[in-house]
Amino acid sequence: MTVRIATWNINSVTARLPKLLEWLESAKPDVLCLQELKCAADNFPYEEVRELGYETAAHGTGRWNGVAILSKLGLDDVVRGLPEQPGYLADDAMLPDVEPRAIGATCGPVRVWSVYVPNGREVDHAHYRYKLEWLETLRQAVLEDAAGARPFAVLGDFNIAPTDDDVFDPAAFVGMTHVTPVERAALAALQESGLQDVVPRPLKYDHPYTYWDYRQLAFPKNRGMRIDLTFGNKPFADAVTDSYVDREARKGKGTSDHAPVVVDLEL
Fold first, then answer.
1. Cβ(87)–Cβ(61) below 8 Å
2. Ranges for the Endonuclease/exonuclease/phosphatase domain (predicted)?
């Protein structure tokens, strides 16, 4: 059985809906994990993607976050949010905001989580501490599935570049989030739970970045970062036959600032 699984930070599913539908028709993933929906779950364009054969499980509140899983293979055992997920406590808030940043589901023979890891903002910011707490909660949540015999993967926007090779210029990021040793250690701890990066180097080009800022011609100049990742357990990784970053989806006007990451499996 051939299965194509992808992840894409869509950066507003309503603003990018034509791009999303076009890409679903051309790339034909069996499962697509989306992040940064920027819409409430009730407002997700369910009918439009259903016409292309996809069921959808969405988790969003209509603000800056939101995640979803689209599947042609069924959606079972859907879980919205991580168990005991921490919330972000802003300076002017009375209670922590538990944000919609994770959703899990079983899609046919594979179980997946779509995750949108907190940005962290600045190294000395409360959001940075929240990011590290969130990553540890994710690690705890996936331990059982990572060690299991069923193919399992965590896909999404991790807001961390795993190595210096995953940014266009390490010197440009000194003192900034996304590249700190502490963040990378948290990512390594997640992998130590039994997961591995299944989109390894080299790919079809030297620098398979997944994100390029809209400003300063970052995409034409390839001033990017690889922060959209797919971590699979051994049964998942052993089934991978191909993987790529779809740079074409980042081209043109009205696109997300992220490109889809696609993984093919033979199960």
1. no
2. 6-258
